[in-house]
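The authors assume throughout that readers already know how a fold can be written as discrete tokens. A single example would do more here than another paragraph of explanation. An entry of this sort, consisting of the sequence and the corresponding backbone structure tokens, reads as follows:
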Amino acid sequence: MSMSIPPPAEPRSAAGLRTAPGGQAPPARTWAGFEALYREHFRFVWRTVRRLGVEDALMDDVVQEVFLVVHRRLGDFEGRSSMKTWLYGIVRRITADHRRTMRRKPALGTDDAPAAGLGSARADDADPEASAEQAERVRLLHRLLAELDEDKGEVFILAELEGLTLAEIAEALDVNANTVASRLRAARREFEAALDRALQEDEALEGRTEEGRSQWATR
């Protein structure tokens, strides 16, 4: 893809899930394995939750809910699919429930910066300009993903941003591989077209800004 994808958030610790509201503390003998899974796959879960449209202010709650379900159901995982496809099925259901709930509530205002908490992206204090550019890329990516319909958006996220194969995506979405391939082709076309429009708009805005500055300087 022609768009640079910013790095994801870093996990803090799975320890908070031990005492999460409504959650059961896991037995010590199973905690080590779950914590290893959490460290390995947190970034994937966090990215996917955000890319599926969860607001920054609610990221921590939704990601935590995903991992609470993962812990409860970890014994059901039989290794017939990859861990990512199994996790995506859980993320998909929880984010869908979240969106249905939010449609029944007043819209929340969201800040431009990621929420501080479990899934926060780390700011690069040593280079605020780079941090601002990264934040802008994040906003643009999420805006472009929101322009895709749900079916196309899912396959685009899993294929282009997460690198899953068509077979893995077909299994995760419970559709055949030909359908995945068709959706992915359409999603790529729509994403590239939307990206081109966004870049052209930015160039036009920058041109108008520079023109305004020049006019001001000659006064």
